[in-house]
Amino acid sequence: MSDKIFRSLLLVSALILLLIFAGMFFSLSKGAVPAFREFGFFGFIFSDKWISGTGQSTEQYGALAFIAGTLMTSVLALLICLPFSLPVAFFVGEYFRGKKVAGVLGGIVDLLAGIPSIVYGLWGFYALRPLIQSLGLSEQGFGVLTSSLVLAIMIIPYAASLSAEFIRMVPQELKEGAYSLGATRAEVIRNIIFPTSFSGIFSAYVLALGRAIGETMAVTMLIGNTSRIPRGLMDTGNTMASIIANQFGEADGLKLSSLIAIGLLLFLITAIVNFLGRLMIKRHSV
Amino acid sequence: MKKAIFLLAVSSLLLISCSQKTSLSGAGATFPLPYYNLVFKAFTENAGIDVSYGGIGSGGGIRSLKDEVVDFAGSDAYLSDEEMAEMKATIHVPTCLGAVVLSYNLPDVSSLNLTGDIIAGIYLGKITRWNDAAIQAINPAVSLPDKAITPVYRSDGSGTTFVFSDYMTKINKDWENTLGTGKSLNFAHGIAAKGNPGVAGTISQTEGAIGYIGSEYAFALNSPIAYMQNAAGEFILPSSLSISAAAQEGIADDTRSMITNSSAKGSYPISCLTWIIVYKDQAYANRSEDQARATLSLLNFILSPAAQAQTTMVHYAPLPKEVIDKAQKALSEITYNGKSL
Questions:
Q1: Is A79 part of any domain?
Q2: Three-class secondary structure of residue A127 per DSSP
Q3: pLDDT tens per residue across span B82-108
Q4: CB-count burial class (<10 Å; 0-12, 13-18, 19+) for B161
Q5: Domain residues for A92?
Q6: Which B residues in the span 130-169 are in contact with A, Cβ-Cβ below 8 Å?
Q7: Domain annotation covers residue A16
Q8: What's the complex ipTM?
């Protein structure tokens, strides 16, 4: 009896989740229709114009500037996080595996994931931005590079702990076999561990990328929020998440619909990235 | 199982007790939020009716009112005739006065005069250095540094931008033709920051920056504020007195008026009204008559001398008597199912 109740309870909650997902997709699509109808689906995606109808301009909205900003910041963040997260993963997952120091380091890195993004934003605003200004990298300190640096720190824990997990999963026999043939530790890592866990590590980075793409608050505080395609790493820009955070409160009509359309695109992009990441994990574990 | 039933019973009891007590909810502009917090708390103490207000932006507040999920909406911009035509009949009740101030970051400059034309020049990228002849000409006693000007503007849609651009459009032809009036403009120069705190923070962190912020933030943060030239040619600092002076004349009977560039003597030129918007007929979305009466008494309370006196405590300005009279007349038109309250 109780088993039956439990089963139906599980089924109901699983169905509710599915329903919520479908509902989100539906309401986003519905809200985005006026924008797509006005500018065309591809016209909207490939236009970098974001013009409010003030002065003598006419309303015109497109997502390209924000898609570009999102891709630039998140890919750059991924590149920056690579040389930090990969060593941490090998440190925790192989070199000092099971040792106290690995536990402490792993714990601290995981702690980074628990810090609210607004705190990263504040730190970026009050500490990183003046540093970038004083280094003379950029006149006003905001921009793609500043946000990417903060994003990189934010995604290190995701990339590092998941990678460490896959490094731990490399079969002991393989490693012992290599050692018995006289391989050094570095050779074992390069020739055995890395190739065996590569697809897993890759998927860890894809998931970290998904996290960077959706990050809103810290980026909004640091990217400078100018609605055009960034012309370089020092230039200011805007991401899909930050334009929504910025303009949703006072938007109406076509602008509101365009923001919802960007939300839909963001939803699709993160869903695809996450799906790819999970697909690769699945392949790896088979 | 017993536990679950007990929990269900308790939660339904809670729900019932909640729905029986009258409480009001509103949403909208963040600009008057500090004042509303004060006034709503005083109202709860006086009348025993809870008021919750979500500072989600004027646009969001009006959307919520359109969806009939709130009792009132707060807005920094009045509804246009077209917007009003799309909705059931609404009335605008002004609640207090505020201003948009120009704040700057020049460590060695303690007093700065500005005109609308100069600000337009700065935001349009025509005036780029602080020691520009045009700025120096109206600041003869100040030694202005040879430093780049960094204009800061709002990245989010905002009533503050709307009021500021309304004034600039009235003053400067170039501004009118390029940027115009709106809650978010297509600025081509300067850096953007989110919200009043974001702009204020960016100014204080960037030497040579200038930006427009809601007066209450500038006062609370003690940032340096520029004297603005008004229509009478005087250079005026924003204060309760100079802001109230701007609302002395020229207010329409339904109070849907902008008071920027007021011709009144001693007035601060970038002053503004902020409104609470409610439906004229309070019977909608199954609201009870009690709910309607509570809404009306809240609005009456906001217009009372006691509540108006609190405006200055949080750096806003009280409504002049003429405006209060017009607002009270509007309130007398509120009905419930066609019958006067």
A1: yes
A2: helix
A3: 889 999 999 999 999 999 999 999 999
A4: buried
A5: 60-285
A6: 148, 150, 155-159, 165
A7: no
A8: 0.77
Summary mean pLDDT of chain A: 91
Picking from A56, A236, A250, the nearest residue to B184 by CB comes out as: A250
Over residues B112-146, the pLDDT tens digits come to 999 999 999 999 999 999 999 999 999 999 999 99
| pLDDT tens-place string over residues A66-107 | 999 999 999 999 999 999 999 999 999 888 888 899 889 989
Q: Which residue of A has its CA nearest to B156?
A: A246
The beta-carbon neighbor of A225 closest among B155, B175, B185 is: B155
The CATH number of residue A259's host domain is: 1.10.3720.10
Question: Amino acid identity of A95?
Answer: Y
Which residue of B63, B150, B156 is in closest CB contact with A246? B156
Number of domains in chain A: 1
Chain A residues close to B58, C-beta within 8 Å: 249-250
Which tokens sit at A171? 């079969």
Residue A31 lies in a domain: no
Q: Is residue A112 part of a domain?
A: yes
Chain B interface includes A224 (CB < 8 A)? yes
pTM over 0.90: no
Is B285 in contact with B25 (CB distance < 8 Å)? no
Look at B185 and A220 and tell me if their CB atoms are within 8 Å: no
Give contacts of A132 with chain B, Cβ < 8 Å.
Answer: none
SS3 of chain B: the string is CHHHHHHHHHHHHHHHHHHHCCEEEEEECCCCHHHHHHHHHHHHHHHCCEEEEEECCHHHHHHHHHCCCCCEEEECCCCCHHHHHHCCCEEEEEEEEEEEEEEECCCCCCCCEECHHHHHHHHCCCCCECCCHHHHHHCCCCCCCCCECEEEEECCCCHHHHHHHHHHHHHCHHHHHHCCCCCCCCCCCCEEECHHHHHHHHHHHCCCEEEEEEHHHHHHHCCCECEEECCCCCEECCCHHHHHHHCCCCCCCCCCCCCCCCCCCCCCCCEEEEEEEEECECCCCCCCHHHHHHHHHHHHHHHCHHHHHHHHHHCCECCCHHHHHHHHHHHCCCEECCEEC
Task: Assign B8 a pLDDT band (cuts: 50, 70, 90).
Answer: low
